[in-house]
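To: structure subgroup
Subject: Chain for Friday's discussion

All,

I'm putting the inputs and outputs inline so they're searchable in the archive.
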Amino acid sequence: MRLTQKTIDNLSYQIIGAAIEVHKHLGPGLLESIYHKCLAIELGNKDLKFTNELVIPIEYKGHFLDTQLRCDFLVEEQIVVEIKSVSEVLPIHHAQIINYLNLLKVPKGVLINFNVVNIFHHGQKTFINNHYEILDRE
């Protein structure tokens, strides 16, 4: 698969669609771990390759730290997916996914909060970084 903004955007569309499918069946108010397991099933149903609970390497001044920092999903090695089940998404959640994007050097991230009435309108936010901007626009 050739990496372009269009292919990355299509992947994020599929990921959000998978989250909407989970939310349609479960609704809001459950534990994040339940949504996590169900989203893994939906991503698999869409034949998307993903890593679950990926340990993110941290390098500090030439030292690699064993921090066990994990992102929920890395889809097709291009999109970080971080899920929440919270009453309010806070700026720290935004900072978290932006840091994951930068540490993993991937172009896009999707933050999904399942504790909302409508994921499409209020429960998802996408993030891009400079790795996205250098992709072909096609």
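Points worth raising on Friday:
The longest strand covers residues 50-55.
The chain has five helices and seven strands.

D.
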